[in-house]
UniProtKB/TrEMBL annotation:
A GO cellular component annotation in the UniProt record: plasma membrane
Keyword Signal: yes
Transmembrane annotation, as ranges: 42-65, 160-179
GO terms of molecular function: D-glucose:sodium symporter activity
Protein name as annotated: Sodium/glucose cotransporter 4
Signal peptide positions (record): 1-18
Keywords: Membrane, Signal, Transmembrane, Transmembrane helix
């Protein structure tokens, strides 16, 4: 969000001020700040600075916040994606120091516009006109094992997809280089 805000600020500064045409004797009406930030810094160099600023903010926030306990990260990071252990949900700490489960608001208590938005986005549990197929009840351990097993990919298809990805990248690079 910091990167977006800084990028939008430069965008607004660049397009809100007009520059006199090249060779014109008209004075430049822009302030010195806008002349330096927008006029003298190429947009690609600005994007490098913006990348560094965004990275610094992300690392700073990461170091300043408390890490999530490891037992709540199973299958949430790249390194634990195949872990079959049961993941404990991230819980909220209440003011008295006890943990409380984060509960979602029931559909019936949501405002009408939010229920319709949930239906359109496909995040609602059910809608008035639709019936759900019966769900097979699995234990938490079975759900965790099924989630870890979902990522298994047969070696043939893994190789097939990787080869096609390399072909697509090579073809795209050739076309970009040929027509650039």
């Amino acid at each position: 969000m910091i990167g977006l805000a800084i990028g939008l600020l430069r965008f607004i500064l660049e397009f809100s001020h007009t520059i006199p045409p090249c060779g014109s004797s008209d004075p430049d009406p822009r302030s010195d700040f806008v002349k330096v930030i927008v006029g003298q810094v190429h947009y690609l160099h600005f994007s490098c600075f913006l990348f560094l600023i965004t990275g610094a903010v992300a690392v700073s926030f990461s170091l300043l916040t408390e890490p999530i306990p490891e037992d709540r990260l199973y299958r949430l990071t790249f390194w634990t994606r195949r872990d079959p252990r049961v993941r404990r949900p991230v819980q909220e700490i209440v003011s008295n120091g006890t943990e409380q489960m984060h509960m979602e608001t029931p559909q019936s208590e949501l405002p009408a516009w939010r229920r319709y938005l949930n239906i359109v986005c496909g995040t609602s549990g059910s809608s008035a006109g639709l019936t759900e197929a019966p769900q097979l009840q699995l234990s938490e351990e079975e759900k965790a094992e099924a989630a870890a097993a979902f990522l298994d990919e047969p070696p043939y298809w893994r190789k097939f997809l990787n080869v096609n990805a390399v072909i697509c990248l090579a073809l795209t690079t050739f076309i970009w280089g040929f027509y650039a």
